[in-house]
Specification:
The chain has 543 residues and is of the alpha+beta class. Helix content is 25%, strand content 28%.
């Protein structure tokens, strides 16, 4: 039946012998319906897999007569049943078959009474579906539907899953993915919604002239600018005589009692609740960990946009980068940051973080230009981002223990995680909109936001340490697992041993294990010549 350019499918739900449901879509749609692949068994070991439409408004599940024809034999008897089908257009009497089949899921198998309709075919065409699926396969995204028979943007669908089967699919989480929403099942992601591409040149649709924006909209107190560019330390820095790129200024953290192994108290109930909430947010998608950040939500509502300060700081920062030719766009290419289109009138709907560059020319440094964001900036009596975030508990390995190991064993293995903070992505678009920043390219003002953790955010060290431990604990007990759990200090791995062969084997296993979690070990070093040559072959040696 067609109505106003739409096709009406009679996908029904049963109650006694009366059924009712509605399904409606356009003949030439750009919206994808939620589809998942299921495997059914005829009771004799013969199995058939096919795509089914997810319908949370249906009490019963259905399949096409074509799927029954795919079995060589059906051992269970089929009954002819008469149903009163109700749709929003009316109702009619329809004869359907009923058959008992086994439905297999990753962790279970269940008997389900399917209703069979010989005329049922829910296949649909969605503009651009082929290109979307190819892109997701390229990025190794696990999908719950089978797209191997996708032709000309048309997806074959021969069944419908009602709530009698959906309850067996496992946890169904609605989450953000790229610019849309997906359902996440144990079997994989279920895409749905609008697949139409964004307007061409969307990012160029609103070009902001930097000088004009500054002139027409914003004036900032220079005190805030100086604070961002030269933040005041809370201690007398004994390393102040060194250049900034030579020594990281982390003395306060390094010399804390907890860091050298003196722990004053166990985790509080508040710590346990925050950690449990953070733990439940962890997702592993496309070889990358996604997390939600631990916030004090009430405080977070009071954080100002800070666009005036960010724009004023930008002028001084960009001038230095441009003059020295140090601007790099690697982070944008890797998807760590992304451009967003924001009109000046909407700047106050985002949180903009001022930043300054820390430039490192050392050969062993994987991130030559590290933008350090001032998440501790307070304007007026408003809280900073760091005031609103949970800083976490100390999960660092005892530094004294790591240092003493250099005096005990003959050989050493050193390594660090490439762009460690930037390898952990954010689940929520709302959180990504909190980590926005401006960049000046010529006369144009570009708006960016981070998709990952950032340097300068108080929760980042705790989250990194937690995620490394979370990933490593997935592996069975082994010397490599023990090393990765007990010899990391933030993103630095320190391991010593009297056998270079043992260290080399640990190194190879560690590179593989950490790589499976999206963490790349780089800047490796050993005082054993043979071991160092192997690192050179792997292009991971610290020169």
């Amino acid at each position: 039946m067609e109505c106003a350019g739409y096709v009406i499918r009679e996908t029904t739900s049963v109650g006694g012998e009366s059924t009712a449901s509605n399904a409606c879509w356009h003949l030439n749609s750009s919206s994808l319906l939620p589809v998942v692949e299921v495997a059914v068994n005829n009771g004799s070991g013969e199995s058939v897999s096919f795509n089914c439409l997810i319908d949370t408004g249906s009490e019963r599940s259905y399949l096409s007569g074509k799927m029954l024809d795919a079995f060589s034999d059906i051992n269970t008897p089929m009954r002819d049943r008469k149903f009163l089908i109700k749709t929003f257009l009316g109702k009619e009497i329809k004869h359907l078959k009923e058959v008992n089949l086994q439905v297999r899921f990753p962790n279970s198998c269940h008997s389900v009474l399917f209703l069979v309709d010989d005329d049922m075919d829910l296949s649909f065409r969605v503009h651009g579906l082929n290109s979307v699926v190819e892109d997701l396969k390229k990025h190794q995204v696990k999908l719950a539907a089978n797209f191997s028979e996708l032709r000309d943007d048309t997806l074959p669908v021969y069944g419908l899953l009602g709530v009698d089967v959906l309850k067996f699919l496992g946890p169904m989480n609605l989450k953000e993915f790229r610019e849309g929403l997906v359902w996440e099942f144990p079997q994989g992601m279920v895409l749905f919604g609008d697949l139409s591409p964004p307007p061409k040149d969307q990012a160029k649709g609103l070009e902001l002239n930097y000088a004009q924006v500054i002139k027409e909209h914003f004036v900032c107190d220079l005190t805030h600018v100086y604070f961002v560019l030269n933040p005041k330390s809370v201690y007398t820095d004994p390393y102040s005589c060194f250049e900034e790129f030579t020594v990281e200024r982390t003395v306060e953290k390094m010399l804390s009692l907890e860091t050298i192994g003196i722990v004053e108290e166990e985790f509080s109930d508040f710590d346990k609740n925050m950690i449990e909430s953070f733990h439940s947010s962890i997702r592993f998608i496309d070889n990358c960990y996604y997390v939600s950040l631990p916030w004090n939500e009430e405080k977070l509502k009071s954080v100002p946009a800070n666009h005036q300060v960010s724009l004023s700081v930008l002028n001084r920062v960009s001038k230095k980068l441009t003059e020295q030719g140090l601007y790099e766009d690697d982070q944008e290419k890797e998807g760590i940051i992304e451009r967003i289109v924001v009109a000046p009138s909407d700047f106050n709907k985002y949180v903009w973080i001022p930043h300054r560059p820390v430039i490192k020319q050392d050969l062993q440094c994987t991130t030559k230009i590290r933008p350090v964001f001032n998440c501790s900036l307070r304007t007026g009596r408003k809280p900073s981002l760091n005031d609103c975030a949970y800083s976490g508990v100390n999960m660092y390995t005892d530094m004294l223990d790591l240092l003493l190991r250099f005096r005990m064993d003959q050989y050493v293995l050193l390594a660090d995680i490439r762009k460690a903070f930037l390898m952990i992505c954010l689940n929520d678009k709302r959180e990504r909109n909190i980590f926005c920043f401006f960049l000046r390219l010529g006369d144009e003002l570009i708006c960016f936001r981070y998709n990952t953790l950032i340097f300068g955010f108080v929760s980042s060290p705790f989250i990194l340490s937690y995620m490394v431990r979370y990933h490593v604990e997935k592996y069975p007990p082994s010397p490599c697992r023990e090393m990765l759990l007990g010899h990391f200090y933030v993103d630095n791995l320190v391991k010593t041993h009297n056998s270079a062969e043992v260290l080399m084997q640990l190194y190879l296993e560690a590179v593989s294990a950490m790589g499976e979690g999206g963490f790349s070990l780089r800047n490796c070093y050993s005082n054993n010549e043979v071991f160092a040559k192997r690192m050179l072959q792997d292009n991971s040696l610290w020169f």
